[in-house]
Design a protein that fits this description.
Distance between the termini: 70 Å
Number of helices: 15
Strand order of the largest sheet: 2-1-3-4
Number of strands: 8
Largest sheet: 4 strands, parallel
Helix content: 55-70%
Radius of gyration: 21 Å
Structural class: alpha/beta
Low-confidence stretches: none
Number of domains: 3
CATH class of the largest domain: Alpha Beta
Shape: globular
CATH architecture of the largest domain: 3-Layer(aba) Sandwich
CATH topology of the largest domain: Rossmann fold
Order of helices and strands: EHEHHEHEHHHHEHHEHHHEHEH
Mean pLDDT: 92
């Protein structure tokens, strides 16, 4: 059995650690690139969103490398995600690949379902070994996200452009290579320390922009043309509330304290939207309501044809919370130049708004 799964940010690193500890042959397809997208576009049904196309391209590339068991997330929600695995499996069979698609419904059985799937894929490995491997994978996931949060804070204030991104690439590689808890803790501490020690611009108070929207395009840099990196170059501090480690805590584990981030977002959105519309549409509206007083602006990322985020986009433009929102629709037609032009204009708008507020606060007209 050779197992593979599609890319979404750095998610392959904790899964690689999990499967390697269980002596499972885990195939990592190439990171998302133009060929991945071209394959997905060529073989996808017309009108499918970019998460479908990119994950299909990943699965084709994994099958080319000999993977015979492919893992895809699924579920019974309103989003089309629940249909991806079955459609993609049929496409792969039509292309001549003899693969089995394993659909993971994380919303139903949560942690128990994930562990049961791992036990099946590991040829019935002992539970103690499975839990130990799973915990190590989670530790890598948490370390990756903590380093990324440090990078987001450093990008807009670094003295030498690109220094934080360079360290981030080194940190990801070091965390990937760490083969035990001690090496993992050392790698995380070393690179977070090096990030904090970077030379900073004096007296800089960067604009703060939240990045919200559909889960996949928010977390997969190739699908959004590295929007967070580009915002950092423009002197903006990115605040992204969606991290896979945080999602894991709320989605896989029981919550004895009853604290649920999604419930908080749904409550905030209820004056404008009272029910789930699929995907992260309900959460996107709640994000705007909750963060209007804390951020200078919001970047709303949505796959083209994604109905939940189209609903959210239209509602957000009509709420009474006063915060600018720029919606960027992601698909194979989006160009870097066009996106950068929109980002530059948006950041300029936010800078003017902040200066105007400061003048009002100082009693000037």
């Amino acid at each position: 059995m050779r197992i593979a799964m599609p890319h979404m940010g750095n998610l392959y690193i904790p899964f690689k650690a999990l499967f390697q500890r269980l002596d499972i042959d885990f195939v990592v397809p190439p990171l998302n690139n133009q060929r991945t997208l071209s394959l997905g576009v060529r073989y996808s049904p017309e009108g499918m969103c970019i998460p479908f196309k990119l994950t299909l391209g990943n699965l084709i590339e994994a099958a080319e490398l000999g993977a015979d068991t492919l893992i895809m997330p699924g579920g019974s929600g309103i989003c089309r995600l629940g249909y991806y695995a079955r459609i993609q499996e049929q496409i792969l069979h039509d292309l001549g690949y003899n693969v089995e698609m394993v659909q993971v419904g994380v919303s139903q059985r949560k942690l128990v379902g994930i562990l049961a799937l791992v036990k099946r894929l590991s040829n019935n490995a002992p539970w103690l070994k499975i839990i130990s491997a799973f915990r190590f994978g989670l530790s890598k996931l948490n370390a990756l996200d903590r380093v990324e949060q440090a990078v987001q804070k450093m990008r807009p204030v670094e003295q030498t452009g690109g220094a934080a991104n360079q360290l981030y690439g080194q940190a990801v590689a070091a965390i990937d290579q760490a083969d035990d808890d001690a090496a993992l803790r050392k790698a995380e501490a070393e690179y977070i320390g090096r990030l904090h020690r970077l030379d900073k611009k004096a007296s800089v108070r960067p604009l703060v922009v939240g990045v919200i929207g559909e889960f996949y395009v928010v977390l997969e840099p190739f699908s959004n043309l590295d929007v967070e990196v580009e915002l950092g170059k423009l002197g903006v501090e990115v605040r992204r509330t969606t991290f896979i480690s945080g999602w894991t805590r709320f989605s896989l584990f029981l919550n004895p304290l009853g604290v649920n981030e999604k419930d908080r977002l749904h409550k905030a959105a209820r004056p404008y939207l009272k029910r789930d519309v699929g995907g992260e549409g309900w959460e996107s509206v709640g994000e705007k309501v909750l963060h209007a007083g804390h951020y200078d602006g919001l970047i709303h990322l949505a796959p083209f044809t994604c109905m939940p985020e189209i609903v959210a986009q239209n509602i957000m433009s009509r709420t009474r919370e006063d915060i600018p929102v720029l919606t960027i629709l992601c698909d194979e037609q989006i160009t870097k130049t066009g996106m950068l032009t929109r980002l530059e204009a948006f950041v300029d708008l936010l800078g003017r708004r902040r200066r105007a507020k400061q003048l009002v606060g100082a009693g000037c007209e």
